[in-house]
UniProtKB/TrEMBL annotation, chain C:
Residues 4-120 form the Response regulatory domain. It comes from the Bacteria. It comes from Caulobacter zeae. Pfam families: Response_reg. Keywords: Phosphoprotein. The lineage of its organism: Bacteria, Pseudomonadati, Pseudomonadota, Alphaproteobacteria, Caulobacterales. The modification 4-aspartylphosphate is found at D53. This is Response regulator. One of its GO terms (biological process) is phosphorelay signal transduction system. The keyword Aminoacyl-tRNA synthetase does not apply. SUPFAM superfamilies: CheY-like (SSF52172).
Length: 155, 767, 121
């Protein structure tokens, strides 16, 4: 999986990087629809802990995911600096709650390294690869894995 | 190919409409309204289905439609009388045709035996054992009834006009046209050279054919050289404008055979004398020239004469000969025509003009705009946003304490009104008449009646009542059930009816109307009505109600909606198989609707079904639960109340029930069930919503506070997330926040799943 | 110059089929749903060729053709009728009404375009 990414052409891509706790992550800018300040969400019953609930995004019901919690870290306590990044994952739109947006990176795929083995399986499945820039370590999120399968939770 | 597939979709849509027209027309004929228009419309419906089916190569459909059409053609030409029996046969045939359409569409299979038997029956009806001779002539004669008005004077005027008309398509000067330079090359082999002699008759031009075009077509086959012999043209004062005097002789050099050359003249078959000979010919034909030499040529003579050169089969030539002189002839006995050749059927002109003026309404094709339904859905969504936004704005302004008389507040009021109007108008775009559902019902009634041995006539009313598309699609099942029930359980057998002094044929009425912002569907019958005594005793016997319960007539009637209730003595083919009125009630409630029945012994019953006009909005009760705002569908709520301490009774270790009059209903804390809180506050501190689930079971939902009723725009949770247990959908409230719409049934069953299971009270049906 | 063809047919399917075939061959297509409507569209669009069905409500194909032929402005417009193989009598009657030529249903697009070429000036 990750090997394939490394061998693909060295096309330039832009990524938005953000902070979750003390760690840095990023997503492809093409998947990002907008970035919004935190607003309280309506709690969803019978949902996993990382689902913060749903908010009204210009008339659409947008699920908000606590990215830290999804990655197995402590729940984010939203502050004024907290934002959610609205991304398109498959045919769904979700908001990822993160601590702060850092910057926009322009990279080529040869900068992406495979996720090291030591990471736990859950985390590995959400991470496309790791980018090393200026001594920073930034993990690229694999969006299509973030939301649970539609059927999985309904049962 | 995609385009063809799209047309195929159109075709099947059109088939639905045509089948409805067909059935509607046949039913009108059954009611004695068999004027010519109705029969023609019925014929056209089948004809159009056949035509489209032919285009898509749907052979079995074409074959059946053809047999059907043939009979209908005979009916419309009065060859076969439209007796009541025949109309019944035609109705059955329309059902088989509908099956063929479904089958062609890949929905279901045609019973070949039924189809073959039906086709045989139709053929037998068509076969004119009486009067075989006039058959062929009949349609032609009949269809011309409007025409014989042609007055000679009009015809003469027409002839004068024609003299000034130089638009006859040929030139009077003898001349040679060389269309291809190559034609000069006479070195071509004789085997490839043809001589084509063309002598156009006036009819050729009257039909907007052109000699020049024929020559052009010939030139496509190879180089041509055309010569016009105008020697037969009389002096101008003797000239008959519509007669033909000129002969073209064309030398054609081509690799093609004679068939290809003849094909060029396919459309002018009979409208010109044609001679095709191999090799260099002599022009003009000597025999023809001799015939033309006489003065004042009579068309009939000329056309009849040169037999060998006439392209058409003889009978046609004879028939068209007098017509050539004056088209009006068609409308009158043939001999009249000769003296006054008219260029066109003058008599028809004023009539046609009058007709044209009558139509000031644009034709159906002009007034209809076809729009992708997705665009409309999007528009409806956007207007939903607008409504929410406007509500948010109003709420904010209210929070700022702005006086209602201020300009701002008044402007907001106007905005609200406009917004509502826009919403109504937009919803109206997606509204459709219930006709599409109603039109499937006559067949159902026929089938159910024949299956149960009842005689039933369906009367429909309010077919044009409009309702949102989302609702229309879900009306079919409840209506089907109600109609089945009305015929199977409501109507008596013909014998019973006769004995009761009623018409053996029962009447079932299906009506749609708008009432206070909802659509109401009524299904009534003139049958025996509900046997209350029996219904009551069955309900007790089956443990659906307690024997002590005092019930009004109305309450007894509505017991039939309880699950597990079935009044039929034996399970019939129609209403049996466990599909009872409880199922109907459930599906109706799922749509936010209500259903009830009223009955008068001996006179019949009426089912009344009311539904919201749209599934895009919902009437709900806004409540607070554990700090969350929820919307409970109003359709599920029986009543709301503040429980008194003595009405709450503990049952088992954690459960408790609420005493509502003389029954006990389980208390369900919504906050606990949805996982919003760990422990329930005492129910007496909150508000109870007495709700009824789709299966008729009742529950008392405990909420913290009630904010009142409102209409909310339904939003999907699944679009961006997934289905959530206990939640039907979401909406956006005036404060801009998302509120969840409670799925009452799911909440009841979620609660049930949790041990310890509360004891079922007596009112709730055993599963 | 793009030629305009007026198609007159009460069947939407048939109108769509004609439109597909004709538009594909580069014709400009205007449509009418019956004879009466056809006469209205005729005056608004002045087609180069007319293709008409026979069985139609309000004003059928025969009546439509007659009404077109009676008008000096339109009598030179070629009219092709849509017929079925099974009914030569209809074809003859349409011709007597003034039809220029005919197309047998179901038609193939080449035959259709060929027929138009043969009658269109």
């Amino acid at each position: 999986m990750t090997e394939e990414i490394i061998t693909t052409t060295a096309e330039r891509r832009e990524l938005i990087s953000f902070r979750v706790g003390e760690q840095e992550y990023c997503v492809d800018i093409m998947a990002v629809r907008e970035i919004r300040g935190w607003s309280p969400a309506t709690t969803l019953p019978q949902s996993p802990g990382y689902m913060r609930g749903v908010i009204n995004l210009r008339g659409a019901v947008l699920p908000i995911m606590d990215l830290a919690c999804r990655l197995g870290m402590p729940v984010i306590e939203p502050t004024v600096r907290s934002v959610f990044i609205v991304v398109k994952a498959g045919d769904r739109m979700i908001g990822m709650l993160v601590d702060a947006v850092s910057d926009i990176l322009s990279i080529t795929d040869d900068l992406v390294q495979p996720t090291p083995d030591l990471a736990c399986d859950t985390v590995r499945s959400f991470i496309r690869g790791i980018i090393s820039i200026d001594g920073r370590m930034i993990s690229e999120i694999s969006l299509d894995r973030l939301l649970p399968e539609r059927e999985a939770l309904a049962a | 190919m995609d385009e063809l597939e799209a047309i195929k979709v159109t075709f099947f849509q059109e088939c639905e409409e045509l089948l409805a027209d067909l059935e509607g027309g046949l039913l009108a004929m059954q009611d004695g309204n068999d004027d010519g228009d109705t029969v023609n419309a019925v014929f056209r419906a089948v004809h159009s289905i056949k035509g489209g089916a032919g285009a898509f190569g749907l052979e079995p459909l074409v074959r059946f439609a053809h047999v059907f059409e043939t009979l209908l053609d005979a009916v419309r030409s009065n060859e076969v009388p439209a007796t009541p029996d025949l109309v019944v046969t035609l109705l059955r045939a329309s059902d088989v045709l509908a099956d063929h359409v479904s089958s062609a569409r890949g929905l279901g299979v045609v019973d070949e035996a039924v189809s073959a038997a039906m086709a045989a029956e139709l053929k037998a009806c068509t076969d004119p054992n009486a009067a075989p001779a006039p058959v062929a002539a009949a349609p032609v004669v009949e269809a011309f009834e409007a025409a014989p008005v042609a007055a000679p004077a009009d015809a003469l005027i027409g002839a004068d006009d024609a003299l000034d008309d130089d638009d006859l398509g040929f030139d009077f000067q003898p001349m040679t046209i060389t269309i291809d330079e190559q034609a000069a090359d006479v070195a071509a082999a004789v085997g490839n050279v043809w001589t084509v002699s063309i002598r156009p008759k006036s009819d050729l031009y009257r039909k907007a054919n052109e000699t020049a075009l024929l020559l052009r077509e010939l030139a496509r086959l190879g180089p041509i050289e055309a010569t016009l012999d105008a020697s037969a043209i009389p002096p101008l004062d003797q000239l008959d404008a519509e007669a033909a005097y000129a002969t073209w002789t064309v030398r054609l050099e081509t690799e093609e055979d004679e068939t290809a050359i003849r094909e060029v003249f396919e459309f002018v078959d009979g409208d010109c004398d044609l001679e095709i000979t191999r090799g260099e010919g002599l022009a003009p034909d000597a025999a023809l020239a001799a015939l033309l030499a006489g003065d004042a040529p009579a068309p009939a003579v000329v056309e009849a004469a040169p037999e060998p050169v006439v392209l058409a089969e003889a009978p046609v030539v004879v028939e068209t000969a007098p017509v050539a002189a004056a088209p009006v002839v068609e409308t009158a006995p043939a001999p009249v025509a000769a003296p006054a050749p008219a260029p066109a059927p003058v008599a028809a002109a004023p009539a046609a003009a009058a007709k044209t003026q009558q139509i000031d309404v644009p034709g159906p094709g002009q007034s209809v705009i076809r729009v992708d339904p997705e665009r409309i859905d999007r528009l409806i969504d956007l207007v939903g946003e607008l409504v929410i936004n406007q509500a948010m704005l109003a709420q904010r302004v209210g929070e700022y304490g702005i006086a209602p008389s201020s300009n701002l507040a008044m402007g907001l009021d106007e905005l609200e009104q406009l917004t509502r109007e826009i919403q109504d108008s937009v919803m109206a775009i997606r509204a459709q008449p219930v006709k599409s559902v109603f039109q499937r019902m006559p067949r159902l009634v026929r089938e159910v009646a024949s299956m149960t041995g009842k005689q039933a006539r369906l009367v429909m009313d309010g077919e044009n009542t409009e309702v949102d598309k989302t609702v229309i699609e879900r009306l079919s099942d409840p209506i089907t059930h109600m109609l089945r029930n009305a015929i199977d359980h409501g109507l008596e057998s013909p014998e019973e009816r006769k004995a009761a002094g009623k018409n053996p044929e029962g009447v079932v009425r299906l009506a749609a109307l708008h009432r206070s912002g909802r659509i109401v569907i009524e299904v009534s019958d003139d049958g025996k009505g509900i046997n209350r005594e029996r219904v009551h005793s069955i309900a007790i016997k089956k443990g659906l109600i307690s024997p002590e319960l005092q019930l009004t007539d109305e309450e007894i009637d509505n017991l039939i909606f309880l699950p597990g209730f079935s009044t039929a003595d034996k399970i019939s083919d129609v209403s049996g198989r466990g599909v009872g009125m409880d199922v109907v009630k459930r599906s109706v409630q799922a749509l936010g609707g209500r259903i009830s029945i009223t009955s008068r012994p001996g006179q019949g019953s009426t089912f009344t079904l009311s539904l919201p006009l749209t599934l895009a909005v919902l009437d709900g009760m806004v409540v607070d639960v554990a700090g969350e705002t929820l919307v409970v569908p109003l359709a599920a709520i029986v009543e709301s109340l503040r429980p008194k301490p003595e009405e709450v009774r503990p049952l088992g270790p954690v459960g408790s029930v609420l005493a509502v009059r003389d029954s006990f209903v389980p208390l369900i804390d919504v906050g606990l069930t949805l996982g919003y809180r760990e422990a329930s506050p005492p129910p007496t501190e909150g508000v109870v919503l007495l709700v009824e689930g789709e299966d008729g079971s009742r529950a008392a939902l405990v909420a913290d506070a009630i904010h009142g009723q409102r209409q909310v725009v339904i939003k999907s949770l699944e679009q961006n997330y997934q289905q959530v247990d206990g939640v039907a959908a979401a909406t956006i409230l005036g404060d801009g926040r998302v509120a969840l719409i409670l799925d009452v049934d799911a909440v009841i069953s979620l609660r049930r799943r949790e041990p310890p299971r509360p004891v079922e009270p007596t009112l709730i049906a055993a599963e | 110059m793009t030629r305009t063809v007026l198609t007159v047919d009460d069947s939407r399917t048939m109108r769509d089929m004609l439109r597909m075939a004709l538009a594909g061959a580069g014709f400009n297509v205007v449509e009418a749903v019956d004879g009466e409507h056809g006469l209205e569209v005729l005056s608004a669009h002045r087609p180069d060729v007319i293709i008409t069905d026979i069985n139609m409500p309000k004003l059928d194909g025969f009546g439509f053709i007659e009404a077109v032929r009676v008008d000096d402005d339109y009598r030179a417009i070629p009219i092709l009728v849509l017929t079925t193989e099974s009914d030569p009598a209809k074809k003859d009657r349409a011709r007597r009404a003034g039809a220029t030529g005919w197309i047998v249903k179901p038609f193939n697009p080449e035959k259709l375009v060929d027929a138009i070429r043969r009658v269109a000036a």
